[in-house]
Amino acid sequence: MKPRMTIGMAIVLALLAAFAIAAIAAPLLAPFDPLRQSLLLRLKPPGSLLGGRSFLLGTDDLGRDLLSRVLFGARASLLVAVVAVVLSLVVGTTLGLLAGWLRGWVATVVMRLVDTMLSIPAILLAVLTVAVLGPGLLNLVVVLGLTRWPRYTRVAYAQTLQVAELPYIRAAEMAGCGTARVMWRHILPNIAGPLMVVATSEFGLMILFEAGLSFLGLGIQPPYPSWGSIMAGGRQYIERAWWLTVFPGACLFAVVFCINVAGDWLRDQVDPRAASR
Amino acid sequence: MSQVLAIENLSLSIAGARVVDGVSLSVAAGEVMAIVGESGCGKSLTAAAVMRLLPPAVRQEAGSIRLAGVDIARLRESEVRGLRGRRMSMIFQEPQAALDPLSTVGTHIAQSLRQPLHRVRAEVLRMLDEVGISDPARRIDQHPFELSGGMCQRVMIASALIGRPELLLADEPTTALDVTIQAQILDLLRKLARERGTAIVLITHDMGVVADIADRVAVMYAGRIAETGPVDALFAAPRHPYTALLLASIPRLTDVPKSVLAVIPGRVPGAAEFGPGCRFAGRCPLTEPRCEAEPPPLAPIGDGRATACWRWEQMV
Asked: A103 vs chain B: nearest CA distance in angstroms?
């Protein structure tokens, strides 16, 4: 018995799917080249019809079509968030699992490293890393992946310590399972729920981080769009051109909100005990 | 009869205290050997030593554990792992907690065979049927939370026996179950032991379970074996004061209603309080000065029986 799919959940999942499709198919869906400027078309409001062309979401300060830029921006934002979350989830979970299972000096080294990472301001670390590696999409992902793993490690470590003491783990060892199998088949699935919750909350944060770093000039480089950089660029025109911040902001909000709702739902899906309640 | 398991002079210590001291026992194929004793007397540690899964704080000081003649302590870790589930298995007290809540019944059992379920599905279904689970085709894909405690224990038994091990360690397998299910599980264990020639070491504190299923019994007290022998003879005429008092403390239906339950005065000494002599001396009605000074060895007294008491002859 899986939990019933409610209408609300269906809408949330449909919205997420729509954003994913928009990001993947941006080149097909975008009406214009997101980089083409025209000073004659500066800051036109949404729905403008000019010279036989319609600008559904208006144009920005350089006369670029906002709809096209938001679509391509979804690409950058979601790609960065997905890759960064996956990267930090894999790194963080692996370290936490190993520390929790092996304990001893491994746990000491890993957990002190976590404490060290958590005591350095993330933005500062990101600035430092970008200063060394140089800005850009790939480096942004690497920076986020390498700075955001400690939360997963904390959770994975605590959960592993708890699960490792349970009789079924001992039973698995008694049945002759090796360390790798016990960790992969018995501990990992049983700590996946809390990790999933961390991952979804991190996903929203990653989108916001990307926006913040792009705003600081450390992420996506102009003229390429991301939701964060579009909003940052629109900030100074907010009195005259509200659409420049509202539309990417609304997308950001919608995605992060849907992700968080979907995360709760997903957690119930992976836990058969929750499903029976 | 060949010995499947032979433990000789096993001593385990925690922080220098000998919590298991010079335990020797053996089990033959198809035989059920019960280890009885109070909580903390070393029964479960002995079993963990056989599986070589002792908690990190426990050290094996002396003795040997031989499975079909091979000393387990001398094997490499990978070799011991190969034995677990295949040549020796274990089942536990709380079957529902001993099954991974996220594995299905089928994958759990298949794990003992080191095979993916789809390759051994028929074999697993046969095994489920053999341990008395009705509708195996439906149960094989269910999760532990969908099963009752008795059924979970049957699943545990199935996964313990599917590899056809020579030795099954059962650590209080029926303690968490209600009495009717308890009897069914015991019958099942005895039946499978007979049919497959599996040697069973049954750890329990329940004398009723021992009388029900075991062929031989070893009574443990504070890390040592107090008395051992065939169940019927030992129950009929105990030759160690501890056994006698344990048996006397079982309430009977023929007791006068509301009569005071018989108890053994005092309590089991802690590991730090062990004296040089017999560990039961402080609570024993037959204690003499020699008992306090010198530990009685487990000496044979005929008919396959042995007792660790200086004064057993006074009990005849």
From this structure: 12
